[in-house]
Amino acid sequence: NKRSKFFFAIIDKNTGDYIGEIGFIRKSKSIFGDIMELGYFIREVYWGKGIVTEASKSIMSYAFNNWNTRKVVTGCVVENKASEGIMKKLGMIKEAELKNHVVLHNNIHDRVEYRILKEEWEELYKNKKTLGIVKLKKNPN
């Protein structure tokens, strides 16, 4: 697959409501496997309900099991403790803290970066299932 971006709508399974989006940008491709960067956003009304964690588990499982993915990376500004908490809940490992790395709202911020390797993911999630509270729908864009 020559695409470099893969994004999906996050939909509430019970109501069909649009919650937000989640997806990957392929950072690198090699015979040893791809490195994919996870990205997401959801509507504020859905914050703090475990939805991004659930959707991340689904899409990361798909990437590791169906694509040639060897590593998933993601990150956020250090002030975004909720997003960093998601990374920790997923079992991701902090790899870096980048000083003065992101300009956001006319301020400069540090960024934390996390990763998980395919074999780490498989060990953590070999006997676990997702909660089934969201479904992912292919984004036409």
From TrEMBL:
Protein's UniProt keywords contain Transferase: yes
One Gene Ontology MF term: acyltransferase activity, transferring groups other than amino-acyl groups
Pfam hit, one: Acetyltransf_3
InterPro entries: Acyl_CoA_acyltransferase, GNAT_dom, N-acetyltransferase
Transferase recorded as keyword: yes
Record domain N-acetyltransferase: where: 3-92
UniProt entry keywords in alphabetical sequence: Transferase
Protein name per UniProt: N-acetyltransferase
Organism: Filobacillus milosensis
Organism placement in taxonomy: Bacteria, Bacillati, Bacillota, Bacilli, Bacillales
